[in-house]
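Sequence in, structure out. Go.
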Amino acid sequence: MKSREAVVLFGHGARDPEWAGPLRRTREQLQRLAPQLKVELAFLEFMSPTLDEALDRLAGEGVRSIAVVPLFLAQGGHLKRDLPLLVEAARQRHPAVDLALAAAVGEDEGVIAAMAACALACARG
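Output:
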């Protein structure tokens, strides 16, 4: 049975393919935590798939609820300007799909606490 729910982990992208390693590991961990959920990666630039490609593919597979989760540290220009336009265009192309756009993961208190704990562990050696 195909999943009707999905999460798209959205990253900026980079020319160095190794840059996406943590995003891939995040996808794998989320898939282990929620095996019934379809989890995809998408990128703003330099890497594929793009957000348009990922959303179009999921909609074509019959997914009806998609959460776009930006794996960014903060709500900068790309998330304030570019990403909402991409999501709105996808809503126009796929009106039967419920598309939700989350805030940058780095804005989450749990993520902030994890970064602080990591920094403290580094400081203590």
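Check: The chain has one domain: 5-124. The mean pLDDT is 96.
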